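Researcher: Let's do a round of design. I'm pasting the structure tokens now; please hold your answer until I've finished.
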């Protein structure tokens, strides 16, 4: 996750038994290298790097990942055909994030080892089709034979079990770990996340790249512009540069873009990542014993 998962969060999650993922989308190439090296020093367990395929310096990121022998890469926001063969040639496992069955199949055809099927509830950039996790998981499961990792709207062990009942082999959680001590996000943003209520987030900027965010002042400006039929250029000007950094990293809750999922409505506490992993695991085991409440 941009502006949230650097080496501290990724290594804490890996040390706790999950698979920590460094979000390279907000990092300059030399910053990514530093985070990978620090992550390796902080954990002996596997970890991954996420590379949004639209990233401008992607060649440099991929080279760093290869040089640093990162074992697993999660690609997102782009065509999996371009980089999957390159990464696989270097023995790297590739998981691609999709929001439709069509792209799940394309990922499988491109040689990906697994897909993350991310539903409409999810925080951050998202599919235009608005397919929810509950619908997406069985739909994707029925068209691919590679493992399916469910994402979007999952923050508890019971939700994890539900996703697995629908055919997922694993889950990817974002929002829950934004509200962790180790996330590099600004404390103002973390506090906003735990005070978010149902209905406080919405998918916006559908004309550009759709993103789910908190309905703050910036969101209202985007809505007003979209409702008045603003052009793509006008929206791009309004978005400007560095909006997500301003909101999530610098803590400007009015002017910044605050990416978070619907599930923030049930996240009530900022905790160490290891405590979150442990809580999810305990809840999962209880839910498995007593699936029906
Ligand atoms: C603050 C934030 C930043 C994110 N950044 C990225 C990103 O850079 N690349 C990516 O593939 N997904 C990104 N995501 C999506 C997450 O990886 C994950 O799939 C999503 O949060 C799952 O849904 P949830 O928020 O309901 O847990 C981001 C999510 C959040 C909340």
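Researcher: That's everything. Go ahead.
Model: Designed sequence:
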């Amino acid at each position: 996750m941009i502006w949230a998962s650097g080496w501290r969060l990724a290594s804490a999650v890996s040390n706790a038994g999950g698979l920590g993922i460094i979000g390279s989308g907000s990092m300059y190439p030399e910053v990514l290298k530093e985070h990978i090296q620090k992550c390796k020093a902080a954990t002996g367990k596997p970890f991954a790097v996420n590379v949004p395929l639209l990233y401008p310096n992607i060649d440099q990121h991929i080279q760093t990942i290869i040089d640093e022998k990162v074992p697993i890469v999660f690609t997102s926001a782009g065509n999996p055909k371009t980089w999957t063969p390159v990464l696989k040639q270097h023995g790297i496992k590739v998981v691609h994030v999709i929001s439709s069955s069509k792209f799940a199949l394309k990922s499988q055809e491109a040689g990906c080892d697994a897909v993350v099927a991310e539903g409409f509830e999810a925080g951050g950039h998202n599919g235009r089709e608005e397919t929810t996790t509950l619908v997406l998981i069985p739909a994707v499961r029925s068209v691919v034979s590679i493992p399916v990792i469910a994402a979007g709207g999952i923050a508890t062990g019971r939700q994890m079990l539900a996703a697995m009942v629908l055919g997922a082999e694993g889950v990817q959680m974002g929002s829950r770990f934004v509200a962790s001590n180790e996330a590099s996000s600004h404390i103002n943003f973390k506090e906003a996340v735990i005070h978010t209520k149902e209905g406080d987030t919405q998918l916006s900027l559908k004309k550009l790249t759709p993103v789910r965010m908190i309905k703050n002042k910036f969101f209202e400006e985007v809505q007003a512009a979209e409702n008045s039929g603003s052009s793509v250029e006008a929206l791009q000007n309004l978005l400007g540069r560095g909006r997500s950094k301003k909101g999530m990293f610098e803590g400007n809750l009015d002017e910044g873009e605050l990416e978070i999922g619907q599930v923030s409505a049930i996240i009530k506490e900022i905790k160490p990542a290891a405590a979150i992993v442990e809580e999810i695991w305990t809840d999962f085991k209880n839910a498995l014993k007593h699936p029906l409440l």
